[in-house]
Amino acid sequence: MQMNRGFLTPTLPFPIPFIYSIIYDQWISPVVTGDRPPPIDDFTLTPVTNNTAVMFGGFIGNEYSNKLYMISFTKTSVDILEVPNPGGSVQWPNGRYGHSSVLITTSSGPHLLVVGGSRAYDVWLLDINKRKWKELINLPDNVTNRHWHSLSVWSMTPTTNWIIIQQDRDKEQQQLLQEKATLSQQLDYSTNLLEQAEKDKSSLELEYNEKLKAKVADIEEKKQIIT
User: Fold this and answer.
1) Which CATH superfamily is 19-167 part of?
2) Rounded to two decimals, what is the model's pTM?
């Protein structure tokens, strides 16, 4: 079974600054060569072999990424190759983040299955060796409309794989959360206005009371002078 999703701090100069060695029980800072990605988060990094992986998608600044990277690892180094998007009529997924991906090994070689993601609710299959994408169409909405979910593959036989999707934040949930966040912000703003109004009112009342006390004291003083 395999599960993976990437989520790294976007302030890092490169999203793979350290590698953990299970054998040596320590973190290693590798030498990075090749096409270094920009600061990125919420991508997927899917292992293909013991020393290679595929990185796809993510959130870069204010943009949804559809960049594809092939990554090779050694004990002390990381080499990255960006696979260019040829454009034109060639199929290529739209940018996304919060998606999930998993490796499927078939008789024709390894394939990367990508499901869902924010702003791109669809499913794609990448032939890793040929580096060609194919969109899987006519799938039910409860498969494609996924965001921030987990994705697993269970190999039943050499020709049969079960794909398991667990949890998610679908479009309706996401919209409700956005509306809730907006209402929460409006409520906070209104509460702050009321609190400020109460403070202003208290300040005015205090100022008025002080002036009133001073005026009463002045009148009392004048009465004493007269008497």
Assistant:
1) Kelch-type beta propeller (2.120.10.80)
2) 0.67
